[in-house]
Write a structure and sequence with these properties.
Elements (H helix, E strand, L loop, with lengths): L2 H19 L4 H15 L4 H4 L6 H17 L3 H9 L6 H16 L4 H19 L3 H16 L7 H14 L9 H18 L22 E6 L11 H7 L4 E8 L3 E3 L12 E6 L1 H11 L2 E2 L6 H4 L5 E8 L10 H4 L1 H5 L1 E7 L19 E7 L3 H8 L1 E3 L14 H15 L5 H14 L5 H7 L2 H19 L2 H13 L4 H15 L5 H19 L3 H13 L9 H10 L5 H24 L31
Antiparallel strand pairs: 1-4, 1-5, 1-7, 2-3, 2-4, 6-8, 6-9, 7-8
Helix pairs in contact: 1-2, 2-20, 4-7, 4-18, 4-19, 5-7, 6-7, 6-8, 6-10, 7-8, 7-25, 8-10, 8-25, 9-23, 9-24, 10-26, 17-18, 20-23, 21-23, 22-23, 22-24, 22-26, 23-24, 24-26
InterPro entries: Cit_transptr-like_dom (IPR004680), DASS-Related_Transporters (IPR051679), RCK_C (IPR006037), RCK_C_sf (IPR036721)
Subcellular location: Membrane
GO molecular function: monoatomic cation transmembrane transporter activity
């Protein structure tokens, strides 16, 4: 083992350790990894920043912008509302919504497709009395398997296409993933159509199962006015009015002194009560007792006229500017014109003051502001409103144009008229020029942390291959897999990628595993294509944790899920995906090299653009 190989392995171990430690954001970990690689000399300075201009980053960024444009359309919402009366059972709702988000995920970034369907699903749940926990996790998993059907559905597909271009001079094209992806997706949808029954139906301390919106109890603050019937009463009497769904977890009085009260404490006028409550119980007790719901800012509520005031529930998106910050630091009222009224957090009991709380992805917020300004404020904060997008206030809407733009983009790639990078970049620009998105919305759609991670780890990934580190690992794997059938080696690579993804970001896993998979194929004398396909599917299909993929994180708060809930549905689905993919990959991507060497698209006759280097990478 050479010194460079030792250094690159130490660097990989350090990056993985920081990802698992989870105290630093993954984009910061990637920046530190690139800096360390330059300091160690394993990434030359002239190549260190090549990742920022790599076409992988261009494709991902363009696909995110186009996904945001499609999300502006209300056509999907109107279609769901039209067929909703026919969805008389929970199973029918799960199957319809999951299939819809899966199909859309094949055409755009899966996180964008889920963001389109999430508010619709919450509204369907509310109107039908169905628990969102039955709907949202199957939808998140459907968006993940839908993403593996085309090149642009998920980042790992784009990354393994880049690795193939470096190996053979030709990348995977837009629809090279489709035959295996469709088979895996079909099996996954068939399971999810009845597997949703494995999910929890309700929890103690939450809204009853008849209440559609079931998240962890809200943390909110309320001021006790002098004319309230609660003045002079005890904490126990207040909680009795809430019928067990309202708890006084703190009282702030005497300036800013915070007390944890006993049940016999007397309530005084001017007390600031920190309440943990079901949202419906909170609404009832405020109406009955005259409590004034407080906020993280002061004065805004008074400036809002009754007709202009708006209150909205929204979920904090992964990558939101809120994540890791407190309301006090963000100055929500002054900078964004909104007040934070309440917050609910998945699987956690919150006992801190609202203004001191640090936001996490998946938190569900109740925000107050001017109704006509709320949509823009939510977009700037990176929050997804849990309301039907077709009824959003203050936003012009073009229903057909975004979907038409997406259709034309996919057609241009399928027919070989333009490379993927060119087609999606052009579509992103046209989305802004046509007025579908403002320039500010286009920039907000860019997931900068994931783009930074890709740009920084691409040179590190190249270093793993350039130093011979990937070949060294592959040699060890080849020795272990040498006595096994070739299909088993593919299965092991898929399972290894699937096992790493919950601890690393899926893009980071793909950047690490793809060169190793290609080297392993070479050591075994097999074609690298099936191994790269296995890595792409394994990295894209994290069903076991809420943190391995943004789609899983996004539904955790609105669905009221806890960390362990993902195993209930995710473990059997992972087994199904691994088995089906292992059976299908050798069928469409033979393990033995044919006489033509790397014939990139063995089934490409089915697609008009199959023989065009549509991946957009240089040969």
């Amino acid at each position: 083992m050479t010194l460079d190989q030792i250094l690159v392995f130490a660097l990989l171990a350090g990056i993985m350790g920081l990802f698992i430690w989870n105290r630093l954001r993954y984009d910061l970990v990637a920046l530190l990894g690139l800096l360390a690689a330059m300091a160690a000399g394993i990434v030359p300075p002239e190549k260190a920043f090549a990742g920022f201009g790599d076409q992988v980053v261009v494709i991902v960024a363009s696909a995110l912008v186009l996904s945001a444009a499609v999300g502006k359309s209300g056509l999907i919402g109107r279609l769901i509302r039209r067929i909703e009366p026919r969805l008389r059972t929970t199973g029918a709702r799960v199957a319809t919504l999951t299939t819809g988000v899966t199909v859309l995920s094949a055409l755009m970034k899966n996180i964008g497709a889920l963001a389109v369907f999430l508010p619709l699903a919450v509204q369907v749940a509310r109107r039908s009395g169905t628990s969102p926990s039955m709907l949202l996790m199957p939808m998140a998993f459907g968006s993940l398997v839908g993403g593996i059907v085309t090149l642009v559905g998920t980042s790992p597909n784009i990354i393994v296409s880049r690795v193939r271009a470096e190996l053979t001079g030709q990348p995977f094209t837009m629809f090279d993933f489709t035959p295996v992806g469709l088979g895996v997706t079909g099996a996954a949808l068939a399971f999810l159509a009845f597997g949703w029954r494995l999910l929890p139906h309700g929890r103690s301390g939450q809204a009853p199962s008849s209440a559609a919106f079931q998240v962890e109890p809200y943390l909110s603050e309320a001021r006790l006015p002098g004319d309230s019937p609660l003045v002079g009463r005890t904490v126990a009497e207040l909680e009795a009015r809430g019928e067990g769904d309202v708890t006084v977890i703190a009282i702030v009085r005497e300036g800013d002194r915070r007390y944890v009260p006993a049940r016999h404490w007397t309530l005084f006028a001017g007390d600031l009560l920190v309440l943990r409550s079901d949202p419906h119980a909170l609404s009832r007790i405020v109406a009955e007792t005259g409590l004034h719901l407080a906020s993280t800012g002061t004065g805004l509520a008074g400036r809002l006229s009754g007709g202009n005031a708006g209150v909205v529930e929204a979920v904090v998106m992964p990558g939101s500017a809120l994540v890791g910050c407190s309301p006090e630091e963000l100055r929500l009222r002054e900078a964004h014109g909104v007040n934070l009224l309440a917050i609910a957090r998945h699987g956690q009991q919150i006992a801190t003051r609202l203004r001191q709380l640090r936001f996490q992805a998946g938190d569900v917020l109740v925000l107050q502001g001017a109704a006509d300004l709320l949509p823009g404020a939510l977009g700037g904060l990176g929050c997804l409103p849990l309301a039907d997008r077709a009824t959003k206030l203050g936003e012009p809407r073009s229903d057909v144009l975004p979907l038409l733009l997406l259709t034309l983009t996919m057609a241009a790639v399928a027919l070989g008229l333009a490379p993927v990078a060119t087609a999606f970049f052009g579509a992103a620009v046209l989305a802004v020029l046509s007025g579908i998105l403002t320039l500010r919305e286009a920039y907000a759609a860019l997931d900068l942390p994931i783009l930074v991670l890709l740009a920084c780890l691409i040179p590190v990934s190249d270093a793993v291959a350039d130093t011979g580190g990937a070949g060294l690992i592959a040699g060890g794997l080849a020795a272990a897999a040498g006595t096994l059938p070739p299909a088993t080696a593919v299965a092991l690579m898929l399972i290894a990628a699937m096992a790493l993804t919950p601890f690393l970001n899926n893009a980071a896993t793909a950047l690490t595993m793809a060169p190793i998979a290609a080297s392993l194929a070479g050591r075994l004398g097999l074609d690298p294509d099936p191994f790269l396909m296995a890595v792409a599917i394994g990295c894209a299909c994290d069903f076991l944790t809420p943190i391995g993929h943004q789609c899983n994180t996004l539904v955790m708060g609105p669905g009221g899920y806890r960390f362990g809930d993902y195993w209930r549905l995710g473990l059997p689905l992972s087994i199904i995906v691994a088995v089906v993919a292992t059976l299908l990959i050798p069928v469409f991507w033979p393990l033995r090299q044919d006489h033509a060497g790397h014939d990139r698209a063995r089934w490409a006759w089915a697609w008009p653009g199959g023989h065009h280097t549509a991946g957009g990478f240089p040969p």
